[in-house]
Design goal:
The chain has a six-stranded mixed β-sheet with strand order 1-2-3-4-6-5, sandwiched between helices. It has 509 residues and is of the alpha/beta class. The longest helix has 25 residues. 64% of the residues lie in helices and 7% in strands. The protein is built from 22 helices and six strands. Strand 5 and strand 6 form a beta hairpin.
């Protein structure tokens, strides 16, 4: 290759990297072919230092470019892609080659091919205008030292970029990934030895997410569910996920940032579950989805690198898990999505170790504060309290059966403080007063419960018990009959009604 053509090859690559800030996608071992990507637009430039003797050789190479470009388009999840394909050669092919160059379109691919075989200015004008580069063509062919300088500058720049990318993935050695993994395994064993990891009472005792308890003041349940798992398969899946992705994220972000991302994602996952789900839940899934969120933030900051290394796999795993979560019952997708959003925002708050942006970090902090604050406000709203009243009522009944009246009252308190007209919560309060021997207060609460929710059977039943204990079998029978009519399958209702009818004086019913 002539010195002038070689000079133009290296000058073109240098200008694209240094002036237009293109990133390097790939480099041939002999440095005769370099692929570059624009960081601002969906455009790739391929620069080739090669001479074709025959047009069909160049055409075959140009056709191969379409397949490579389309593969990259799909891998980087771009809808459309523009490719500038540049051949810099000593001479033109001996037969007709004009059909090969110019603009051509395929599905979602637009390719502009140039053949630069002469160093005259007019040969480069169209190319440099297309690339928006300043044009300089040397007047002499004595360019060896200039070529070496350009080549060294480009190669050093590529090596420096590769070193930065390598360091980006190796900022720190993982530690907390394995620590959190160990904690969740230990906690699984603790659950199994104390009633079973699939037993609701055991899960509640050790800190599972349960909205009524959190609203009653047990705010530590925003964190503890991250380390609990329901059954061995649940533990196995989340442990494998944490072992696979945790060390990667910790290497990228460093230990302290990793802990912040993991815990904040876990908390936002619990908050997401509080907002959209009333069920008891536990697991590291929200925090693990948060780690995926942190990788998505890496993708936003280093898009080309992300898609060149892991992007398609990360996005594919997220999509598969979300589809699976929406199609299978019992999976807390709200917690997963909440965790992923929290992980993304947490990563934006702490930023990549050598990629700080104070404005972006402050903005992410503000958005996170608004998101967390809004979730808490909604969680404590009348609407959400009413949505969770069934689970709250069941919990109060469990505490009452264990004579833990203060714990039961803690669950009722948010409803009472907000003056929410909940038949179930007023029934719970009446049952607590009944068990404590405060019959007048109990009767008053139960009558309010019936007023608030006439279709709920249990306050009628408890009032029947109260009147039966006071010897008023007529009223007792009346209330228990109503309870049976509303819920004939409830345990003990029919049995009490039959006994009351047997004991009631003739003429009463």
């Amino acid at each position: 290759m002539s010195s002038r053509q070689e000079y133009m090859y290296w000058q073109t690559v240098r200008k694209l990297i240094h002036e237009k800030k293109y990133s390097v996608l790939s480099v041939a071992e002999n440095l005769s072919e370099i692929w570059l990507e624009s960081k601002k637009e969906a455009q790739i430039v391929r620069v080739v230092r090669h001479t074709f003797n025959w047009a069909n050789e160049m055409e075959h190479d140009a056709n191969q470019v379409y397949y490579v470009a389309d593969t990259y388009r799909k891998r980087s999840m771009k809808r459309n892609l523009r490719l500038v394909n540049i051949y810099i050669s000593d001479h033109e092919p001996v037969n007709d080659w004009t059909d090969v160059i110019g603009a051509k379109k395929a599905d979602h691919i637009h390719v502009q091919t140039f053949l630069i075989s002469r160093a005259e200015r007019e040969s480069y004008e169209d190319l440099y205008r297309q690339l928006q580069l300043s044009l300089f063509i040397p007047e002499t062919d004595e360019l060896d030292s200039d070529i070496r300088a350009l080549q060294m500058e480009v190669v050093d720049g590529i090596n420096e970029e590769r070193e930065k990318e390598k360091n980006l993935f190796n900022y720190s050695k993982p530690f907390f990934s394995y620590l959190f993994l160990a904690i969740q395994i230990v906690m699984y064993l603790v659950l199994e030895l104390n009633g079973g990891s699939q037993d609701n009472n055991t899960l509640l005792k050790y800190g599972a997410k349960f909205t009524p308890y959190i609203l009653a003041g047990e705010w530590w349940r925003l964190v503890t569910p991250i380390f609990l798992h329901i059954g061995f398969l649940h533990l196995l899946m989340n442990s494998f996920a944490l072992y696979s992705i945790g060390p990667l994220v910790e290497r990228i972000y460093g230990r302290a940032r990793f802990v912040f991302i993991y815990l904040l994602a876990g908390i936002t996952g619990v908050l997401g579950s509080m907002v959209f789900s009333t069920s008891l839940s536990a697991g590291a899934s929200g925090a693990i989805f948060g780690l995926f969120g942190a990788l998505l933030y890496l993708g936003v900051q280093h898009k080309a690198l992300f898609f060149r290394t892991m992007g398609v796999n990360v996005i594919g795993i997220i999509v598969i898990n979300l589809i699976y979560g929406f199609s299978v019952s019992g999976i807390d997708n709200a917690g997963h999505i909440g965790g992923m959003i929290g992980g993304f925002l947490a990563a934006a708050i702490v930023a990549l170790p050598k990629d700080r942006n104070k404005a972006l970090q402050i903005g992410a902090f503000v958005v996170t504060a608004l998101l967390v604050g809004g979730s808490l406000v909604y969680s404590y709203s009348d609407q959400n309290l009413v949505k969770n009243e069934d689970m709250a009522f069941q919990s109060t009944q469990q505490y009452v059966s264990e004579n833990k009246y203060e714990e039961a009252l803690k669950i009722v308190k948010p409803y009472e403080d907000r003056h929410i007209k909940s038949g179930k919560m007023m029934t719970a309060l009446g049952v607590i007063e009944f068990q404590k021997g405060n019959m007048d207060a109990s009767r008053e609460d139960l009558e309010k419960a019936i007023k608030y929710d006439p279709s709920f059977a249990h306050p009628y039943y408890v009032l029947g018990v109260i009147y039966a204990n006071e010897g008023d079998l007529t009223k007792a029978t009346e209330f228990v009959q109503k309870a049976v009519d509303l819920n004939p399958d409830a345990e003990g209702y029919q049995e009490l009604l039959d006994r009351l009818k047997q004991e009631a004086p003739q003429g009463n019913s």
